[in-house]
Design goal:
0% strand, Serine Threonine Protein Phosphatase 5, Tetratricopeptide repeat
Amino acid sequence: MYGGELSRVRSSLVDLLIPRTHRRLWAGVAVLLGVGAVVLWASPASPTALSRADALLGKGDPSAAARVYDAIALHSPWRGARTEALYRGAVVYARDLGDTETARTRLHILVEQGDSARAASAWEEIGHLRLDEDQPRAAARAFRNAWEVAPDDARAGQRLALAARARTDAGDTQSADRLWVEVGNAEAALRGQALLARAEIHLADGDAEAALGLYEEATRTLHDWDQLTVARLGMVTCLERLGDLEGALAQIDGVDLPPDVIEARRAGLRARQSLQGTL
């Protein structure tokens, strides 16, 4: 009884405070606002459009994500959103859909637009595409372009290192050596890696003496244990090639390899030492 009476009182108060015509009007406004919000959310002009494309990619639908990125790149009123959508779409086409030509078209548009940060990222992605196509020289040029466009970028040193590595893969050892020198000078954190790469280039070219000096310098700079092992083993190889078998035997004790591997290498050096003593 009291519940029914309370409901009638509430209804009367609502009628008094908000006439029925106004309530119908506000209900219509609420529906329109809801529809508008849905339309805006689905629109490539929406501020949340990039997040919607990212979500589609996260759900494992790269084709749908690429379509949304393309729509944003064409229709967003914000230049930053268009640029970002163009780059993200290019990466999806290249890495998820395997459509390198479509990816390359979008990346070159980014390069021509002149936004230094995204142009550098675009050049780097072009470099990786060239590596996938077994074109290390073209990849090296792209990575070098990425560095030149944004030399103060957080990834600048890494891009220069990618260029040096691609030159090495192409067999352009002199160019690679010069690039590694630039890497070491430009980025202190990559100096040890650059010295190690240069040592390996000189050793492969038969210059064991130059390689030995670079390996030694690398051991004073490197902090990565695997790279340190490579540098110390490189020193052993250089000393062996230079005929300093005593030095090679002394150096091998500092190499972090399985005991049986170390012992086999040590036995080989001693055998050479014995043979050298009989000559």
